[in-house]
Amino acid sequence: MPELPEVETVKKGLEGFVVNKTIKSVEFSDKKLRFPYSRKFGKKILNKTILNIDRRAKYLLFYLSENYVIIAHLGMSGTFKIVKGRDIKKYKISKHDHMILYFDDGLLIYNDIRRFGYILLTANCPDKHHLLSSLGPEPLGNELNVEALAEIFKGRKRSLKNTLLDQKIISGLGNIYVCEALFRSKILPTKFTSELVKKNGMAKKKLYDLVESINEVIREAIFFGGSSLKDFHHADGKLGYFQNKFKVYGRENESCLQPECKAKIKRIKQSNRSTFYCPKCQK
DNA sequence: AGCAGGACCTGAAAGC
DNA sequence: TGCTTTCAGGTCCTGC
């Protein structure tokens, strides 16, 4: 499910509740997530205090006392739930709850229907963890450098859509925001990646437009609290609103929203995943 | 080396 | 109505 804006929204929803709380007990379901929990996970985090929550690309990082760090990835269907007050006692563990952290005055629950997500424990610098160390720069804060991208794009034959989904090149984007960014920058998703670079290795204008569109769409999506489709909701159960702003994603056969353009949005498959685009606006 | 496709899961919706 | 197929926000792994 969650791309950068959704994970950022989850982070914001959690930090007000869990920061400075001490983990008094931990409970796991018997089902495995994508990766098994690291050894003695439950024992090691007991009585540790959550000092801070951060996000790197689509990963959530919980910094604990004594230098432990929990790395969480939500996969396609992972969600965190907060339970507090009088709801604690009447909380019934539901089918896809996989980990429950107990605090003195609340619960933090990781629920994941498809179990593509995972929760790992590491120590000290999570950036050095192999899952995070190979991530490319992310939109917004971490400068997305056009010149550096041009260098990477040079000579790449695969489609631009697939390149943008590659977390090693740019991290944090997923299927929705790649489609939306390509629409905003008027670029065809099927273009060869190298077509955004001139022969001398310099970036073409389209590459500048693309980077601007990526930053813009991610910034707006964060502002609207991410996109709520199917199972995504905030930690407090509220919904994001950005799905109402989609220009192409999920709009197959509907009219292009660009004024004056009457073309129908097309859906194609690239590497087995749906790509939505306007055949008239995007070139 | 770079890339596409399969695999990993569950459940909702569409198709027949 | 009920069975089958397709689809979903991700990414690791395999093999070409």
Trace the largest sheet across and list its strands: 1-6-7-5
Q: Would you list the SSEs in sequence order as H and E?
A: HEHEEEEHEEEHHHHHEE
The fold-level CATH name of the largest domain is: Helicase, Ruva Protein, domain 3
Q: How many separate domains make up the residues?
A: 2
Overall geometry comes to: globular
Largest β-sheet summary: 4 strands, antiparallel
The CATH architecture classification of the largest domain is Orthogonal Bundle
Structural class: alpha+beta
Question: Helical percent range?
Answer: 25-40%
Overall residue-averaged pLDDT value: 94
Tally of individual helices: 8
User: Total strand count, please?
Assistant: 10
Question: Class of the largest domain, according to the CATH hierarchy?
Answer: Mainly Alpha
C-alpha Rg (nearest Å): 20 Å
Overall description:
- The protein has two domains: 4-133, Alpha-Beta Barrel (N-terminal domain of MutM-like DNA repair proteins), CATH 3.20.190.10; 146-277, Helicase, Ruva Protein, domain 3 (Orthogonal Bundle), CATH 1.10.8.
- It has eight helices and ten strands.
- The chain is α+β, with helices and mostly antiparallel strands and 283 residues long.
- The protein has helices at residues 4-18, 41-45, 87-90, 130-133, 146-153, 160-165, 175-184, 205-223, and strands at residues 25-28, 50-56, 59-64, 68-73, 78-84, 97-103, 106-112, 118-123, 266-270, 273-277.
- The structure holds a DNA duplex (16 and 16 nucleotides).
